[in-house]
Design a protein that fits this description.
One of its GO terms (molecular function) is DNA binding. The protein is mainly alpha-helical and 148 residues long. 64% of the residues lie in helices and 5% in strands. Strands 1-2 form a two-stranded antiparallel sheet.
Length: 148
């Protein structure tokens, strides 16, 4: 089995699949701090994907602090230590970015996307508030029942 395989049937873009695979390999210790990643050209050829896609992944990994690019030498894994909170933010950012890009590809403007996101966030908040209110009411009712 190859280290990097792209699932053409996946709903995830190729670059996200590759990025997620690198994060997994770094977190599970396959790549240790200081290890050099394959060159962009080498990985693009081996995985049969576009050079620019691999480059985008490496830039994203560097932005998120997983790797460090050293000019003329290559891309090296950084010591990530305890990164749980950053990992969650990174995953969320990637999901939001992909959602926005899908909306834009459907013909929406960025302003329309923002307004729809605000509407969805408000709807979800209202649902959460209604659920909390219902739980509070049931709790108070059960407490009154105990007092009677």
């Amino acid at each position: 089995m190859a280290l990097f395989e792209i699932d053409e049937s996946s709903g995830l873009p190729v670059w996200v699949q590759l990025r997620n695979r690198f994060v997994y390999l770094i977190k599970t210790g396959h790549y240790q701090p200081g290890d050099q990643l394959p060159s962009v050209r080498t990985l693009a050829a081996e995985a049969a994907i576009n050079y620019n896609t691999v480059s985008k992944v490496y830039v994203n990994l560097e932005h998120d602090g997983y790797v460090e690019s050293v000019r003329g030498r290559g891309v090296f894994v950084r010591d990530i230590g305890d990164r749980a909170a950053d990992d969650v933010r990174s995953i969320v950012d990637t999901e939001i970015e992909e959602s926005i890009r899908r909306c834009l590809s459907l013909g929406m403007t960025i302003d329309e996307v923002m307004l729809r996101m605000i509407d969805v966030v408000h709807r979800i908040q209202q649902e959460a508030d209604a659920g909390e209110s219902m739980r509070r009411g049931l709790y108070e009712k059960s407490q009154r029942g105990k007092a009677d």
